[in-house]
Specification:
With 187 residues, the protein is α/β, with parallel strands linked by helices. The protein has 7 helices and 9 strands. The protein binds guanosine-5'-monophosphate.
């Protein structure tokens, strides 16, 4: 079976969004899944583009109706990937990338063992803390929660298919391209 689903995870502040953006710019035929979340939008984020922003009761209703391929609670908010969206993309024969946390990634692997899990790591835990504080988008309490999550995520990443260290953006993008091309050609 074709490996069409790629899951990218990485700790908050590791720069996975930037790596992915660089990859998608050079590989525009990939679809990036849009997740649902109960987190409040950050400045500049738009509903239906960055996320589908849902109220907690709406999110819970989707869980009850089994609408998610995977979902997780992360640093006090809910995040999930709708089954319908993913199935539609796969039916259209599109390669799809999910940018989700490690709990969600492992749920996807259970349901779709052909999915390829890729983890983007920081060069060190200290670099991660510096980057997370430097972006000034979260308060201290949120930063602490995210740093704690980062430790747990590094542990869960041990069962991922690939790890890419983001110590240099261009190198990380190239490594991601190499991994995905290899999987595409092997499919
Ligand atoms: P942020 O709030 O910084 O946008 O995302 C926080 C974490 O939630 C990140 O690790 C991100 O990858 C993860 N995330 C985003 N969407 C989803 C999703 O649909 N499911 C899961 N499990 N995690 C998600």
């Amino acid at each position: 079976m074709n490996k069409k689903l790629y899951v990218i995870s990485g700790s908050s502040g590791v720069g996975k969004g930037t790596v992915l953006k660089g990859f998608l710019k050079r590989n525009p035929d990939f679809m990036l899944s849009i997740s649902c979340t109960t987190r409040k939008p950050r400045p500049g984020e738009q509903d239906g583009i960055n996320y589908f922003f849902l109220a907690e009761n709406e999110f819970k209703e989707c869980i009850e109706k089994d609408k998610f391929l995977e979902w997780a609670e992360f640093a006090g908010n809910f995040y999930g990937t709708k089954k319908k969206y993913i199935n539609e993309c796969l039916e259209q024969g599109k390669d799809i990338i999910l940018e989700i946390d490690t709990q969600g990634a492992l749920q996807v692997k259970k349901r779709m063992p052909e999915a390829v899990l890729i983890f983007i790591c920081p060069p060190s835990y200290e670099t991660l803390e510096t980057r997370l504080r430097g972006r000034h988008t979260e308060d201290e309490d949120t930063i602490k929660k995210r740093l704690l999550e980062a430790k747990i995520e590094l542990e869960r990443a041990k069962s991922f298919d690939y790890k890419i260290v983001n110590d240099n953006l261009e190198k990380a993008i190239l490594e991601l391209e190499t991994v995905i091309n290899k999987e595409r050609n092997n499919a």
